Amino acid sequence: MGKPRSVWVSSVSIRVYPWLITNFGINVFAPSDSQWMAQALRLAERGLYSTSPNPRVGCVLVRDGKSVGSGWHQRAGEPHAEVYALREAGGAARGATAYVTLEPCSHHGRTPPCAEALIEAGMARVVVAVQDPNPEVAGAGIARLRAAGIAVESGLMEAEARELNVGFFARMTRGTPWLRSKIAMSLDGRTALGNGKSQWITGDAARQDVQRWRARSCAVLTGINTVLADDAQLNVREIGGMIPAPRGGASNPPSPPTHPSPPLSGREEGGASAPPLTRGGQEEGLRQPLRVVLDSQLRIPLEARVLYGGGRTLVYTALHDERKIGLLQDLGATVAVMPDGNGQVDLPAILRDLAQRGCNEVLVEAGSILNGALLRAGLADELLLYIAPQLLGDAARSMAQLGELTSLEQRVGLKWQDMRQVGKDLRISVKVEKANPPQSPLARGEALLP
Ligand SMILES: NC(=O)c1ccc[n+]([C@@H]2O[C@H](COP(=O)([O-])OP(=O)(O)OC[C@H]3O[C@@H](n4cnc5c(N)ncnc54)[C@H](OP(=O)(O)O)[C@@H]3O)[C@@H](O)[C@H]2O)c1
Fold first, then answer.
1. Do the Cβ atoms of 198 and 191 come closer than 8 Å?
2. What pLDDT, on a 0 to 100 scale, did the predictor assign at position 311?
3. Is 295's C-beta closer than 6 angstroms to any atom of ligand 1?
4. pTM, rounded to two decimals
């Protein structure tokens, strides 16, 4: 019969064609279904900065055309979205439809299974945006609901639900985080002057916007040259509002969508697309990303700012230098030795390691060497480009050292995702196309550098 697909029809058609669902595996959704699921997605977005390593999930319970309960998952170890929604609905949940952005869990983790809670509450129908990629769930939640006689449909707004949890899906399905490289550059694609100066190519609004991408990431990854050149702290600060919305359940008001999918001409001032956050710096509720430095020879100075301030620091190295490792550990840093056989840090290995540490999204803030290495190895998933209206000329550094390509087959294919204005700069997001990576010399990481 093939993969079930979703079709959009009027509510009248839903009554006319229910046999499609049972006989052909076709899910039929009414316009109101998509409205409720959109609301559940907006709730899920409220967990953008706080749920990892768990996914961002929202839930709305609807009975007689009205919301009777809603909620979103806020932090790992705390109740799931469905639990908040059921608590709010109480007895009104009986006979309701649940709109959930991710398949309800079926296993006992840190919290009891949500599928059981929905069954016990007497749900009549459950609409799921996307199946949970977690092997511990992976369809078992839906199967459990169906076994209890509940009508379950899935696939409504699946693309949006996947995008919201792009890192969680990457970690669960391929065992590595989603790797997003942030690159601030001039219109001629230059990221630093020949002498290494790069502060600041882009304006205040762009740099403030970067803070939001840091805040949603589990880790910020950089190369040792950037640490030596910029001595950046790489934590989340100076945001003018960067604390996740306060704890609480379903009664929290919905926030604007994170990815409103604007046209390519969309305009944004200061990264206004993310959920509203309360003002603050290091205050309660702010989750600092893990700061990760690739430093094969342990050149990092003990006074480097990345070793201090808010957040933990992880240094990957290729060198078994017990003395320097001990000194870094005394400062609170974690050091992991992962050589690649060529005297550098093993990139695929550190990504697997970061996934094992629970990292879903990793933001790369490095120079052209590391960005080039990640692209050549086929490890970069997305480029977040901040483009300033200026030219830095030939002597300035490129955005990624790819070496000389001798055939257009070797080029890195990109797919436009989003473009908007941030202050005086442009922000362009592109996904890296990975069609047939094993055939590409770039993806194989063959020596293209001169
Ligand atoms: N415009 C922007 O958005 C932006 C952002 C960040 C930095 N920058 C600028 O970029 C410049 C620094 O960039 P950069 O290109 O020289 O260095 P980088 O990309 O920051 O770091 C590269 C270094 O990482 C280390 N590394 C460890 N394992 C590696 C591996 N497997 N593959 C590649 N590198 C590995 C290498 O040093 P070892 O072999 O010694 O470990 C390598 O030289 C600075 O001027 C900084 O201001 C600009």
1. yes
2. 87
3. yes
4. 0.85
